[in-house]
């Protein structure tokens, strides 16, 4: 899902940077000190998962965990994802610095949408089955929204990237399925061990 340097047009880069800055500012304001450790752990999981690329046809894809990040952190996913992407760009040259804003916006928005969906579907005392379904939907939604926004960024930059945008969406269909399963299982485990981390019935992402 990382967009490389030299691909996007200047207007798209500027718009992405502005949106990322706004998301980071709001996310930091909403990030309570009691959730810093959670933010660090979730950010580390995102960092590691998105480093592992799997070949799919003529393209490749990797886990994002946007849905899980959004479920756990809501709008605070933006600064966490920004930090992870910055480290990946500096340490491993994944993505790049000029596209950091766009990549943060696409994945951060996917995370936020997933978190909002999850918390709209669950409530205190929710059944285990419903909780896992909500987690699965959030996991899939996080990838879908991020992939759609990435495809739009490519398409708006050049007509020549429309085919690439379509290929990117197709490559992430199996990732959506995988993340649906992963997020459902992780949410179920957290609900049975540390349910307070899910903030059910308390704070909504926005």
Automatic annotation (TrEMBL):
Compartment(s) of residence: Cell membrane
Record GO cellular component, one term: plasma membrane
Transmembrane segments: 37-56, 63-87, 99-122, 134-156, 162-187
GO BP: any one term: transition metal ion transport
Pfam family, one: CbiM
Protein name (database record): Cobalamin biosynthesis protein CbiM
Keywords, sorted A to Z: Cell membrane, Membrane, Transmembrane, Transmembrane helix, Transport
Membrane topology value: Multi-pass membrane protein
UniProt KW Cell division keyword: no
Domain of life: Bacteria
NCBIfam families attached to this UniProt entry: PRK06265.1-4, PRK06265.1-5
């Amino acid at each position: 899902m990382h967009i490389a340097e030299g691909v996007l047009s200047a207007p798209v880069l500027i718009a992405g940077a502005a949106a990322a800055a706004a998301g980071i500012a709001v996310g930091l304001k909403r990030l309570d000190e009691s959730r810093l450790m959670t933010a660090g752990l979730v950010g580390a999981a995102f960092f590691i998962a998105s480093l592992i690329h799997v070949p799919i046809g003529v393209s490749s894809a990797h886990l994002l965990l946007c849905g899980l990040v959004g479920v756990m952190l809501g709008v605070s996913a933006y600064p966490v994802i920004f930090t992870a992407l910055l480290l990946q760009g500096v340490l491993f040259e994944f993505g790049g610095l000029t596209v950091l804003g766009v990549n943060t916006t696409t994945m951060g928005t996917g995370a936020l949408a997933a978190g909002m969906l999850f918390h709209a579907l669950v409530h205190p005392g929710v059944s285990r089955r419903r909780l896992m379904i909500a987690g699965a939907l959030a996991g899939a939604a996080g990838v879908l929204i991020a992939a759609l926004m990435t495809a739009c960024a490519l398409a708006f930059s050049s007509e020549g990237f429309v085919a690439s945008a379509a290929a990117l969406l197709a490559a992430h269909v199996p990732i959506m399925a995988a993340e649906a399963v992963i997020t459902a299982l992780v949410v179920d485990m957290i609900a049975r061990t540390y349910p307070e981390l899910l903030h059910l019935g308390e704070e909504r992402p926005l």
